[in-house]
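Figure S7 source data.
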Amino acid sequence: MSAESPKIDHTEFTNPNLEVLYSVDQIQQRIAELGAMITSEYRGRDLVLVGVLKGSCVFLADLMRVIDLELTIDFMSVSSYKDGTVSTGDVEILKDLSNPIRDKDVIVVEDIVDTGLTLSRLLEILDSRGANSIKLATFLDKPEPRIKTELKIDYTGFVVPNRFLVGYGLDAAGRYRNLPFIAAVRDPSAV
Ligand code: IMP
Ligand code: MG
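Tokens for the predicted magnesium ion complex:
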């Protein structure tokens, strides 16, 4: 008997293990609303968008194109130390900002806030650098598991249920960041 590989009759985007929660159109509509808010609130300021790599790259790319202002972008990469799947709140800076943020009006751009520990630690680090203001924009807010932090989020795309989500920058072990929509994983053991 020949060992044939199992026949796969779906693509990455039509994977039946994914349940679409927010479509491309819903996402673009919401981001246009966030862009309009930021455009009106930051007029005349010295705005820099700080993306937290890697997950925020898709959101940042869409968000910056609906902010009709003079602005710059920068990136940070941090690793959160996790105890199994639970965030411990310790973060290590893997890549720091390229430029100083002194006197700038900063919006930190994240893909998703889960426990909030990574971001609250990151904000503590940025707080000491003399920015004029620091606000927080997250594409997704998963408030249910936030037992350890009181994080003030200024701009939120969608408040989401406490499920494992992928797509639009969010990954499962590095995969699925390229999905143009947000999906919940039906069976996390099968990703
Ligand atoms: P926390 O807020 O410190 O718990 O960590 C947030 C980070 O965990 C996010 O920036 C994501 O990288 C990751 N994360 C949390 N929830 C999810 C999810 O549902 N899917 C993919 N990544 C997630
Ligand atoms: Mg992240």
